[in-house]
Design a protein that fits this description.
Strand order of the largest sheet: 1-6-5-2-4
Helix content: 25-40%
Shape: globular
Distance between the termini: 44 Å
Number of helices: 9
Radius of gyration: 18 Å
Largest sheet: 5 strands, parallel
Order of helices and strands: EHEEEHEHEHEEHEHEEEHEHEH
Structural class: alpha/beta
Number of strands: 14
Amino acid sequence: MDVLVSVDWLKAHWNDSDLMVLDASAPNIKSGKSPELDALKITGAQLFDLKNNFSNKESNLPNTFPSTEQFQEECQKLGVNQNTKIVVYDNLGIYWSPRVWFMFKAMGHKNIAVLDGGLPEWMKKGFYVENRMAVKSNTKGNFKASYNSEMVVDFTTVLENSKEEKALLIDARSQGRFEGTEPEPRKDLRSGNIPNSINIPFTRVLENGKFKSESELSDVFTDLEKETRPLIFSCGSGITACIVLLASTLVFDTKQSVYDGSWTEWAQKVK
């Protein structure tokens, strides 16, 4: 299955017995975006509660990776099996879904795709929706997580890299937040950037709630075409970093990881 699938693809594969649709929509969006379709979901979709069930509950940072055991258990509760084909979407078109795609990849599940355009694009075509609180019964799945720790880097790794520059760190926040001319949405958190990082705002890889075409994305990443170092993606809390990471996979192939603590952690530890 491709990294991205269209709503037409999903409609055509609607009755596949091994297909599962996950709704990764979430409230409290720090970037300022506001979901308008928070009461609806694609018919039959399972709710993927990133904030409560798939984040480390013991961390004082937002949206951090759960343990392998927690991720596996919560996936099994949703009915995810080893052979399940997953399509994940959110109600902003593209926002939370790339994070979920990346989490499954890091946990060893390859058969997952993001629905390009998400719920808005699905509804534009007049396809099936239902109340978001509609419960779908399921049998416990047999999903087994196998965590690839190289795909998620920590503060120490990023601190060392800011001096040694063995990898290129790409920050997906807005230009103003990166340059320190706009305030951070999280209270009392300074703006600015990690030394020796570059800025590719996640909005640059999207258009009307969908990813830009491959040719347009090639233009966005044109300065990285000859980059041989691994790429580390960062943002405010590890969510929009995954949008730019996914976009990069559409146009070139290199080793990629996410700085899970992102700017929220860095700004608290480095004054």
